[in-house]
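Researcher: We're teaching a course module on how sequence relates to structure. For the next exercise, students receive a sequence and then see the predicted structure as tokens, so they can try to spot secondary structure elements on their own. Here is the exercise chain.
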Amino acid sequence: MNITRENIDNLNVVLNVKIEKQDYEQKVADALNDYKKKARIDGFRPGKVPLGLINKLYRKPVLAEEINKIISGSLSDYLVNEKLKVLGEPLPHIEDRQPIDFDTDETFEFKFDLGLAPEFEVKVSHKDKVPFYKIIVDDSITGKYVESYSQRFGSFESVETPAEKDIVKGEITQLDENNMPLEAGFHVDDAMLNTEFIQDPEFKERLLQVKKGDTLIADLKKAYPNDSEVAGLLKTDKAKVENLKGNFNILVKDIMRFKKAEVNQELFDKVYGPGNVKSVEEFRAKISEEAEMHLKEDSEYKFRIDVKDMLMKKLKISLPEVFLKRWLLAINEGKFTREQIDADYSKFEEDLKWQLLKDKILEENNIQVTEDDLKQISRDIARMQFRQYGMNDVPEEHLEKFAERMLQQEEDRNNIKSKAVERKVIDFVKGVVKVDEKEISTDKFNKLFEK
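Model: And here is the predicted structure for the students to work with:
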């Protein structure tokens, strides 16, 4: 077996793989002998099928399989031994495809196209300056957090008459053309009518005047022109209300008004645990710490974007575009068309260049991503997810178990590893470049993303 290399240019290579009879002959013979021992063919006892018949039935597929194994193994070995950094995977050569005759040929030749990763250098030093925006935590931010917690831990209370945005709870019954209960019609015991979403002014005005125990008749399709809202109210599928006609009787059972939680000890305990905060001043101080931590995460996110932009501007490389588009089309066969690949290629190319750049920084600076790094990131992700549900003081052992479960899922683990690689790269760059720290308000910080 012999592999020769033809360099088309710095990014494209053609490999010619030549397989001789001695490369596969013994492997094919061994496989056919194995078939002979196991074959079950009418008229012959097990293990007594003539080898000539075995050859006739199985030699061609066995030969093809062994050839494919030799090609796969030899290409992998060649890429490792020659230290070729390829992009994607080898593809059958787009030209000069010779027909193969497994019945008569003894020597087989195959050509494969390779796309190579470009050689490049990216140097960073203290001469490079990257801004780090420190977001100021002022009273307005603290106030927004207080308002958010008051909303999150608010509750509904029963009132006598409804106002805008109140919810009327009632029993809804579908009526016939005589406004009598329709047999087998819709009936919901605990419907929730949100006055804010009602589109029919006349019905809305009547609903805002009801009291508990009142009844009123209305056309729900007129009240709620959106079929999805009607379906939700009747607890059914949208398709079942598309042709809905007629009135419904509404028996008012209760009127509910949302009330924000008062800023008192009860709220302090719900947010930060019993007894951890004992006054409004302590509450606002604790919120300021929390806001500062969250805003620092936003600052770090913007810093990562700016580091990437700085590095990518330094990266002056080309990629084997024609090859990569062929490869993307091949691995996404049936999923994407050539036109879709062309339209999305620029985004793919940018992501690939960023990946090459990160790998280069890790390799040149001998930076390793360890299992501890993965565990730390998975814990950070777990902590952030718990915070979204208002759980700010989750015990470390719970975070640890949640993180371990994530790392056991292949897709989650790959995503976490990608985050770990990027964090390592950003941390390295942060330690080399000049970090230009700037204080900034939240409004001005948010405008940075509008560019």
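Model: If you want an answer key for the exercise: The first helix runs from residue 21 to 38. The longest strand covers residues 248-259.
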